[in-house]
Sequence to fold (221 residues):
Amino acid sequence: MEVRRNEQRGRYELFDGNAVVGIADYREQAEDVVVMPRTEINPDRRGQGLGAVRRRVHRRTPGVRRDGRRLAAGLVEKRSVNAVVIWESVTGTTRKAANLVAAGLRAKGIETTVNSVTRIDHGALSAASIVIVGSWTDGLVFFGQKPGRQSRLWSLPYLTGKQAFVYCTYAVDAGRAVDKLAAIVQSRGADVLGGRKVHRFHLERDCAALLEQILQTVPAS
Ligand SMILES: Cc1cc2nc3c(=O)[nH]c(=O)nc-3n(C[C@H](O)[C@H](O)[C@H](O)COP(=O)(O)O)c2cc1C
Fold:
C-alpha cells in the first residue's frame, strides 16, 4: 500500500494497487503541523486502514509532527464528533463546569478536549465540530452583567463552521451575560445553537441541563 498526497483535493490517499482504499483530508495548521479533520476508510479495510493512513502519512510526510499528538487529535473516523470546551475562569468555578460538561460529552462517546481560553490546542479545535465556551459573570450584581474578561473572548480563534454552545457561571444574577457571550462567539464565526447560565452553587444541575441542550443537537456516536 502507498500513500499519495493529492494537493488538488487537499487530501492524502491510501492506494492498494490502483484502488483508493482510504483518504484523509488535511489542513496545514502551521508550518510544522498538519491536521486531519476527517478520514474515510473503505469499510472492508476498517481496522487496518485507519492505522495504515496514520502511520504512512506520519512516516513519509515531511512537516507532519513526529510526536503525533496533534495529528492524532485531528484523526477521526467519518461521522465521529469531536468537541472542545473553552473556559475563562478566575476562581475555578467556570473551569469546573467545563470539566463537568466535558465528562458528560465523553460519556456519550464524544471525544472532548478542555482548554483555557489563553491556551487553546489549535489542532483539537480544528478537528472539533462542537465548541462550548464558558465564562463567568462580571457586573454590578443586578445590572451591567457581561462575560468576564471579554477581551480574551473577543480574541478566540475563528470558529467558522463550528456549532457552539455558551454558558456563564454566576452567583446572584447573570443578567444578559449569556446572550452577550453568544454574540461574541457568533462574531468569531460559530453558529451558536444554545446556552445557559450556570449557578456557581448548582454546577451539576445546571451543567446537566446544558449538556442536554448540546446532546439534543448532537447525536451521540
Ligand atoms: C468582579 C466580579 C464581578 C461579579 N459580578 C457578578 C454579577 O454581576 N452577577 C453575578 O451573579 N455574579 C457576579 N460575580 C460572581 C461570579 O460571576 C461567579 O462567582 C463565578 O462563578 C466565578 O467564576 P470563576 O470561579 O470561574 O472565576 C462577580 C465576580 C467578580 C469577581
The longest strand covers residues 130-138. The domain at 2-74 is CATH 3.40.630 (Aminopeptidase). The chain is about 30% helix and 30% strand.
